[in-house]
Every structure is written in structure tokens, then in C-alpha cells.
Prior knowledge:
The chain is of the alpha/beta class and 211 residues long. 40% of the residues lie in helices and 23% in strands. The chain folds into two domains: 2-43, no CATH class; 60-206, Nucleotidyltransferase, domain 5. The chain is built from eight helices and six strands. Strand 2 (93-97) and strand 3 (102-114) form a beta hairpin. It is globular. The mean pLDDT is 87.
Amino acid sequence: xxxxxxxxxxxxxxxFLRWARAHLVCYFPYIPKQPGYNKRxxxxxxxxxxxxxxxxxxxxxxxDTVWLADSTPVExxxxxxxxxxxxxxxxAQYGYCASHTRYFWGMRLHLLTTLGGLVVGFALTGxxxxxxxxxxxxxxxxxRRPGQVIIADKNYFGHDFEELLASExxxxxxxxxxxxxxxxxxxxxxxLRQVIESINATLKTHLDIEH
Length: 211
């Protein structure tokens, strides 16, 4: 039911449950009230991730040797009053979005995907979370191919960070920062970076993650 709610565009549990009682009783004879439903969904978080990973492993893309890493802002509000009163207060933070040249209040969704658009790992953090530390955390729970290549933007930089990836047999390809010498693989960045940008746009447009 939770997967159906996301795919159908419901961002409010109460509204979805009203719709479910009118259309899904033949499939789900017992539909709990909103508080009980919410508790069940929270307890099923690990199960949902297990099923997601299992289905992903059944696809041919799971064994891709090239992954894309990126993060995208998930805006949760704009006014100061929203930041004070929102249930997201304490988790959401003020952060900066370089692609839109503006500050925002909310979260940041970190994605690790294949070139075909399959999400192999993700994390939702505060807006100020370090992208490099988050990527390391995501990678720690993933099965990888020998010589796994990760293409990322220039925010994923640092000698210690790159040494840590190299020690795990991971090749990092990223744009050179200002003052750095040209880096290998730069001819692939523009076309392949568009892939993960389109994935971010799909999540925001079709799955309403900001709502």
C-alpha cells in the first residue's frame, strides 16, 4: 500500500487511506486508521529497503561498474515561521544550492545510481551534511565490483577522501576544482552528469519528494 501511495502521488496519509478504503478493500480487507498505519510503515522501513534491494539485484544494471553520485536539495519551507513550527525542525537545516544560486531550508537527498538510472544507494540528511562523508556511509553497505568507478561533481574532493576510496578499490572521476590540474575522464562528465540530473528531476516531479 505504501508503494502504491507513492506511485499514485499521495503525499498525505489520511487522504490516501480514505481513497484506499474506497478502492482497495478487496485487496486489503483490514486497513488501519492513520496512526496505526503510520506505525506499521515506520516498522517496515527495513523490510521495504530489503525488498527494494532484492528487486534491484534482479536487474542487469546492478552489476554496472560505473555509478553516479550526486545530491539534490529537498526544500521543506521558505518562511521563518515554517522553520520554527514545522515538524521537520531539528532535522531540516539551512543550506546552499549552487545550481540555483540560493539558500534553502530543508534536507538533502544523496543518490548513488547506475548510468541507466537505477538507484543503488541513497541517504536523506540535513542540508549542511558533508557530501563526502555521506557517500562513504552509503558505500559501506553496498556490494561493489572490483575497480568500481564513481563519477561525481567537484564537491567530492579531498586528498584523504580520495585515498580512502582508492583503498577500497574505487576510482573517483570528478571535475577539477579551480587551481587544480585537468583530471582524467573529463570528456565523460557532461553527458553522464545529465543522467543523474534527470533522475533528480524525476523524483521531484513525479514522486513529489519535496511534498
